[in-house]
Amino acid sequence: MENIKHIFFDLDNTLWDYRRNAKITLAKLYEEFQIKDTYGYSFDEFYPHYYESNEQLWADYRDGKVNKEELRKRRFPEAFENMGIPNAEFAMEYERRFVDEVTDTNYVVEGTEEILEYLKDNYRLHILSNGFEEVTHQKIQGCIIKDYMETITTAEEAGSPKPEAKAFMTALAKSDAKVEDSIYIGDDWIADMVGAHRLGMRAIFFNPLKENHMWVEEIPVINQLIELKKFL
Ligand SMILES: [Mg+2]
Asked: Whole-prediction pTM value?
């Protein structure tokens, strides 16, 4: 693709392996809170309930239906309730510990270092994440991503999550970048692709789980990060 100077990346599950890091932390806490011993449900029974509750609440956050406090107040109580433990009084402590400790594990998505190393000499690299300010910086500081990024912008800082234009405009302004010089790479069709496309910004969809999505002719789809070499 021509005339690109700036590459904006999504963070969670695009470069920072949220699914893997979260699962490790959740399993550790599950053991420590002795949930299997007390209630009889295994971690493998719990995890899909957590996954569903977390995904749904993040989609609601993206759509402006819930705020940060609500998301944090609801995801674990709802997961435990759906599994069969209503009114779990340990759920808020679980939430607090999870947010505190999830950034202790910092696996990055396969191919992250190779592709950032490849891109760094020809482009200026940035993060625009829907994550919360403090956690986002901890994630980046804890791994190699920090060595490549010129700016980091969060939805919390912008005051609006992707796909809102304000999130993208805040990141562009902070980076001294223009829409037409820039491309967005992310794994959420609505927040990342629809958001960038609406603004007239080029975009590449990263779809490692090969999930169903809409097709837009101008948006290439990749399943692995190293495929970016075909376009950049
Ligand atoms: Mg993501």
From this structure: 0.92
